[in-house]
Amino acid sequence: MKIAQIGPLIESVPPRYYGGTERIVSYLTEELVAQGHDVTLFASGDSITSANLIPCCHEALRLNPSVRDPIPYYMIMLDRVRRMASSFDVLHFHIDQFHFPLFRSIARHTLTTLHGRQDLPDLQQLYRAFPDMGVVSISDSQREPIPFANFLGTVYHGLPENLHRPTFSQRGGYFAFLGRISPEKRLDRAIEIAHAVGFPLKIAAKVDAVDVEYFESKIKPLLKSSDIEFVGEIADADKSEFLGEAAALLFPINWPEPFGLVMIEAMACGTPVLAFRRGAASEVIDDGVTGFVVDDTESAIATIPRLLSLDRRRIRETFEKRFTVARMAKSYGSLYARACTSFGRVSKVRSEDAAAPAIENVVN
């Protein structure tokens, strides 16, 4: 198949450091190319891919200090995708819903993976206005606020099987926190849990501009303890050691996490996960096998002994069964095939907003 992958421009594909969506777009793109598909990636010019790259800005927008507003660059990208649409069998969007008005007339040839939270009231109006645009959820819990949207399926994220080497006898003796420092990620809870059980905590995380005040006022004072180490952002190449040598990953979120990529990164390393019962945590974690899902800090502290006794080999085996990129690409391939088999190649993008009937919902 001829497939267009339309990625975000905020980070490169793959990202140098933090960037879950861009990382998934990269894994999926490379796997589809390896399977023999003709793939074109629309992304920033500093992206690295074996697919045909169409650069839509010179470099990732977050890393360019001269960029104040990302929207003009997305407009440029969408115009390029629109003009090339007839070259593809299917167009796979990963940029929220910016493209809905422009591609409504060929909705049946598109799918949009929803990578973010969907519980914001404004989004309900959007999906009701574009019922013909087929979307893919990354967890079943992500669907709950918008059950009326045109869901084509749920496809869990996946990683390349050999991306991270498992560590079955960890030696680090610390808990790990990996991701982003923000109110909804609740690093303060991770620090409280680590202190309560006497474990050091290593923090590999970025601080977005919007969260600087929160970091300075709420988190920075908690980092003064000698058993807390703030590492900063780390790249993929550093994750095997950081996660693999950890006794456990702490994931004490306080928001409807759509998936939580770091959880399966830890599992790939054989590291158990302790997560709070929000969003997709209960779907991603096999309770008592790859980790535990708890309701509050007290339960988290009480669960630590059982968490540390989990079989790290079994954790890795569960990752290989559930969360590889090969499985993810197979699921998306089924959705692509439905579009191609049912509707053929895109002919052209019409200027009028001709509504396309919704595709029957299929969960993978």
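(the above was protein one; protein two follows)
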Amino acid sequence: MALDTPTPELNSLGFAKAPKDTRVLVAMSGGVDSSVVAAQLASEGYDVVGITLQLYDHGAALAKKGACCAGRDIHDARRVAEEMGFPHYVLDYENKFKESVIDEFADSYLAGATPVPCIRCNERVKFRDLLETAKDLDADCMATGHYIQRFMGKEKAELHKAADGDRDQSYFLFSTKQEQLDYLRFPLGHLTSKAETRALAKKFGLPVADKPDSQDICFVPNGSYAAVIEKLRPGAADPGEIVHMDGEVLGEHKGVIHYTIGQRRGLGIGGREPLYVVKLDVDKKHVIVGPKEALATRTVPVREINWLGDAPFESREEWHVSVRVRSTRAPKEAIVRPLSATEAEVELLSAEEGVAPGQACVFYETEGTRIWGGGWIWRGY
């Protein structure tokens, strides 16, 4: 376990008292990561309380594999708690999850955006509602299995990328508020590979040691976003036209919700040069396509900014940082120009393709590992 503050007077979670006198709530998804966190802390003698969230219909969840917080996962989390000897509770957050995450996901897709519901879940459910529950239980802190690091800086707790770049989850945690970061702990962030996590699971004899990682968004079966949207918003898949950016109508589509910015496959308009989705016009029900170079942009409007820097966001006219505009992309150098405390224009020093409204734009220290925060990409009008 990495120390938040490696000081002899403090325990491994950064508190000046014995582990047995330190209560920590562990958010347990039922997967190997959070299970290892709970087991490790319990083995160190901490007063561990495990909590698993039921985020959607339990009956439907039982028949679904490969996603977090499903019925099997609740069972797995309970088994880990029983074997390691700490209490475990399941909280029904289904209504909160629908109101805070699923409804916005559906509405964003209908508006032609490409939302990232996992970020909203961390922001509005795990790090807001569950964190308040942890405080109600008199926990000193809340620990999760996320791959990200928290260090104590000169001014305050800082958020840093995970040691394992392949598993770094900073893109999904940029909206963590400072007061939440003060309370949170991420014990896996220092590990250099998933193999280390699984080795710890085997060391503790956990039944989830070989459990596969979840791949899908928990409420999106088989990765079919459109199927979920049609179920949540009947009639949403209205047909329309596929239009070249020069105005030529090339064909018909079965609903804007089936397309995302940057998509090339499945357009059904063969016989021309390779074309990509460059824009979605929901009002006209148009899927607008064009050549690959039309996807490139250097200007990214960002709002709902969460700033984790030491100085106020508006204290400078420009911040020279690196930014990530998709979870699968590497950070690229950019200049962030604040327009207000929560809005900015981001200038990419080299053009990026497929920048889509609804995705996050995360700010990073260019010559280091610190996360400065980030915001949400929008159309700018």
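Reviewer note on protein two: Confidence is low (pLDDT under 50) at residues 58-69.
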